[in-house]
Amino acid sequence: MNNEPIIEIRGLQKNFGSFTAVKDVSFTVNKGDVFGFLGPNGAGKSTTMRCMLSLIKPNAGQIHIFGKNLFEERNAILAKVGSIVEKPDFYKYLSALKNLEIFARISGAAVSQKTIYETLEFVGLSGREKDKVGGFSHGMRQRLGIAQTLLHQPELIILDEPTTGLDPQGIIEVRDLILRLKHEQNKTVILSSHQLAEIEHVANRMVIINKGQTIIEGSVSELMNAQETILAIELLNKGQQALEFLQGKFSAGKAVLISPKKLELTIERNLVPTLNASLVNAGFEVVALEPKRTLEDFFIQMTQS
Amino acid sequence: MLWKNTYNEFIKILAKPRSYIGLAALTLLICIILFAMKADGRMYISFVTASFEQTLSFNGNILNGNLIAFIVLQMLIVHIPLLVALVTGDLLSGEAAMGTLRMLLTKPISRSQVVLSKLIAAAVYTFILVIWMGFLALMVGRWVFGSGDLIVLNSDGLVILNDADVLWRYGLAFLVAYLALLTIATLSVAFSAFADNSIGPIVSTMAVIILFTIIGSLDVSVFDSVKPWLFTTHMASWRSFFNDPVPWSAIWESIWILLAHNILFVAIALIQFQRKDITS
Question: A216 vs chain B: nearest CA distance in angstroms?
Fold first, then answer.
């Protein structure tokens, strides 16, 4: 990861008639990022992603990808981008192999038959290449969609809701796939998702948009750590003593005893290790420390404020 | 990239069952006409020639392959536009409906190349339909009914064309008929650029053909200045090749008007598709 910007979006605006879908969206994705793109339904995520792929022309704003203006050097940029927007759709009357051959042919790179088979194997569709896509399950189409994005070895991968409609196993598979793309192939990935836990698991940076505007952008860990969290502390015993020990020590908030062995207090996430050390040094036997504040809480706070 | 995507278009057309509906329907219709003519053709011909028999004597094989091909062309040229629109009207809008247009346009291929590759595929498909119709009507017709002089009844009376003088006329007639059908193909692709569903452009194309044909056939002076410019007026100009002498100036006029319509429809398709937001 470094600070070389791959995508720079500034002041993006898109109107559909009198309706403003995107008002003022700006963010930067750096090389090697797995970048989470968050927002509630109707926030303008899909419109922004479609603008990034030149499917929709914005009314105002700048989109630079790989340092080039998207609307001046569209083809050169898209040759280095792989994407799924909303859901991957294929020619149902053709086989998986024929579909990939069609998209490979216009990908801007020379994609060999061997690469197509290897990519199918990478996404776990080996052996199904001759089957018609019409008979594929949603999960299989999703994986074929990811195969389609990878065929031409793109530097940037844009995934819009890649886990929508997948079962838990499928979600884990896609999550692993994204992590493999990052770690094994050093790809830059931008993904939007309603599965906020997914973003929390895989993304290192994120932006939250709401009502067509950027709310916050930054490193996931920094944004999360800068926020207060409710920490549930489970002890082997001495809950009351621990409560008295903690009062006033960590300034964020008052500790509350939930049960004889369990208490909660509000604390900044980056102070959790210090609190743990203090408890252990004071002779308390800590069974578990569980931050109850998740990205979901953060997301709700950001989008409702 | 244009030719790569054109190749893709051929793969898609070949794999789609609806592409074969036109060819199958043509084959079936021509076979029915050939069968009917074989079974009852003499009576059909005598009905046409009856009014001339007081002044003319008809000898030889009048019901021959050349006449059968002419009858087939007359009967089917009205219906083939529907078979053409069925495939070409779906080329852009069908992809929008399926969601594959979104996938296609995230690739490094320009929108004009996408439209042009589909137009090339539409032109080739239409050409194959015309060639197939020509083969069945003329070649199979000549094989089943034999060859002979062609007798054509037109508004000026009977035209009798020598057997040796017929084939070149058919060749050129098929080319002009192809140009007329190509106009239908480009019109439906232009409609297709506006729509996100398959059926709309097909219905719209047929609606325009029906509307223009009705305007063209109405004997009302208010439309007199419009009629020569409607492409439907020139759809049957292939028939002019079976006049003697051939009215070349009228044929060239039809060709230019049909070409102008083709250029107009292609331009509309290119401009509309270029500015279209892909929200499907």
Answer: 26
